[in-house]
Design a protein that fits this description.
Blueprint lengths: L18 H23 L11 E3 L1 E17 L2 E5 L6 E6 L5 E2 L4 E5 L2 H41 L4 H50 L4 H41 L7 H44 L1 E3 L4 E2 L1 E2 L16 E2 L4 E6 L4 E8 H4 L11 E6 L6 E8 L16 E8 L11 E18 L4 E3 L2 E7 L5 E11 L3 E6 L6 E3 L5 H9 L39
Antiparallel strand pairs: 1-21, 2-12, 2-16, 3-11, 4-6, 4-10, 5-8, 6-7, 9-11, 12-15, 13-14, 13-16, 14-15, 16-20, 17-18, 18-19, 19-20
Length: about 550
């Protein structure tokens, strides 16, 4: 026992020490004396050990997993930038604002796009004028061809001209068009089927809706019908239409005349020249229209509106990659996520469970695993169902702890309290297992050493004697005893260091631990002592973390 000297002086008033300091000194001295006493008594048969006992009882043992987590919304909508290139943010709705569908979220600088759009409108007008002139020139040539043909021999020469026109122009063109239409329908069907497969895959991951899948299926059915029609048209053309027209034209071939043939060739040559010019102007106009439509779309995309109701959260707020934050005056790129709109009407708690414990959880819609969520700042606990267990471990902490593997687990709340926002901290407790009618003792009565666990049962003389036990499930307060103790037996609630002393006193030698994995509480489970648990009463199998 040690003494504490308190200096005094006659000329100074008496110094008063805080009550907590005095109590700390008394407890330290008393605890040290008890340890010395217990160590001395362990060397022989000392007097009766005095302590608190509690009977082993038959009870229903609930095993729970407790983890810290955070709230997230069940449904999120990502708002992305659809404007090409780098663009500057001019206006931005304040983060945390609740917006409705159609409300303005972001406005991008559109000055350059507006300038290009205005120039594109002028180019489009010029292309339309050129197309009109090409059409008129083509029509004039067609009229001239008609006049030239009329000057030829009306009967035989016209028949000969019709025959050659059909053989060299109309028939091959019709066959080519029918073949091309059929091949394009096949290609379109393949593309639509691939699009449908991609849409179904995205639907399985939650990126698209069932409406998108239905639309893809309708597109595939429509293209199949187009393919069948193209096939039928090609067959009718090759087997019936062509033969009928060819027979009609050949009936007049006998009276064909060379002059009519030369006239036809001359007319076709002149017409093809204007047709080529017309096709070129049509393609130019089409390109101008596409460019104008694209610039118009880009101009409209500079004003980004809310696609649905939700709470505005900037994408950079949860981005740890170091990218530039979303702010007014900042630059954004094409397809960059600007903000998210969580649906705060339905929330979930997300926890991360170590790989050794995740197997204890399950997802079952018919018989869901239940949990309780205590949200920081809210008094009322909320019930929740385990709705999703990630198939892949979260690797965000692998840099700091390469051996750590944690799996995100989602628990959907039964109800979402008012003013709950994504990111709030929460403590989640999940009922993992319920053991009915098992013999259980308090955790503080168990001493674990090596591969063995002991309790100290009150003997006939009042002294505790060690009993080796085999344990089952445990929770925060009790452990299931499979064998070694029966219901009603009194077990000693151990003080720090008392378990080892009682074993030594009883002459019990425990088996040494040869591998870290043999420890009931191995280092990966938090064991810090070479010969047992972290403290008296810590036992293997404890689920709470």
């Amino acid at each position: 026992m040690s003494l504490v000297a308190i200096p005094t002086a006659v000329s100074n008033p008496v110094r008063r020490f805080p009550l907590w300091l005095v109590l700390t000194v008394v407890l330290a001295v008393g605890g040290g004396g008890y340890l010395i006493y217990a160590r001395i008594q362990g060397g022989g048969n000392g007097p009766t050990i005095v302590g608190n006992y509690q009977a082993a009882v038959m009870m229903d043992l609930d095993v729970r997993l407790t983890k810290d987590g955070e709230l997230q919304s069940v449904n999120n909508i990502d708002v992305v930038n659809k404007v090409e290139g780098l663009n500057t943010i001019q206006e931005l709705v304040k983060e945390g604002t609740f917006v409705h569908k159609g409300d303005m979220l972001v406005t991008l600088d559109s000055s350059n796009i507006q300038k290009n759009y205005d120039q594109s409108l002028l180019d489009l007008q010029a292309a339309e004028a050129a197309l009109s002139a090409a059409k008129e020139a083509k029509e004039i040539q067609e009229a001239t061809n008609v006049a030239n043909i009329q000057e030829a021999e009306i009967g035989v020469e016209v028949a000969n001209l019709d025959l050659r026109e059909y053989i060299e122009g109309v028939a091959p063109q019709a066959e080519s068009e029918a073949k091309t239409k059929f091949e394009m329908a096949e290609i379109m069907l393949k593309n639509k089927e691939e699009d449908l497969a991609i849409t179904r895959n995205l639907f399985g991951k939650g990126f698209v809706t069932a409406v998108d899948v239905k639309k893809g299926e309708l597109d595939v059915l429509t293209v199949k019908n187009d393919l069948q029609k193209a096939k039928t048209d090609q067959k009718v053309l090759l087997e019936y239409t062509k033969a009928k027209n060819l027979a009609t034209k050949k009936s007049a071939v006998a009276q064909a005349d060379q002059k009519l043939e030369l006239t036809k060739k001359e007319n076709n040559a002149n017409l093809n020249k204007y047709i080529s010019a017309l096709v070129a102007t049509q393609q130019t106009l089409l390109l101008r229209k596409q460019l104008t439509a694209k610039l118009k779309e880009q101009l409209e995309n500079c004003t980004i509106k809310a696609p649905a109701d939700g709470l505005v959260i900037y994408a950079s707020s949860s981005d740890r990659s170091g990218n530039d934050p979303i702010k007014e005056g900042g630059t954004v790129r094409l397809q960059q996520v600007l903000c998210r709109l969580p649906d705060t009407s339905s929330m979930k708690a997300v926890i991360r469970v170590q790989e050794g414990q995740v197997s204890k959880l399950r997802v079952d819609d018919n018989n869901p695993m239940r949990g309780t969520v205590n949200i920081v700042g809210f008094k009322k606990p909320i019930g929740a169902n385990v709705a999703r267990i990630s198939v892949l471990a979260d690797s965000s902490q692998r840099f700091w702890n390469p051996d750590l593997k944690e799996y995100p687990v989602d628990l959907v709340l039964d109800e979402t309290p008012a003013n709950a926002k994504p990111g709030l901290s929460a403590v989640v407790e999940v009922l993992v297992e319920r053991r009915n009618h098992v013999v259980a003792v308090p955790l503080t009565s168990i001493y674990a050493q090596g591969n063995q666990s002991f309790v100290f049962v009150r003997g006939a003389t009042g002294d505790p004697h060690p009993a080796e036990v085999k344990m089952g499930a445990t929770n925060d307060t009790h452990a299931e005893i499979v064998s070694g103790v029966t219901e009603g037996e009194d077990v000693l609630l151990l003080q720090p260091g008392q378990g080892r002393s009682l074993l030594e006193r009883a002459g019990v030698k425990v088996q040494p631990t040869t591998r870290p994995g043999d420890l009931p509480n191995n280092p990966k489970r938090g064991n810090k002592r070479a010969g047992g648990a972290k403290a008296e009463g810590a036992v293997p199998g404890k689920v709470k973390t």
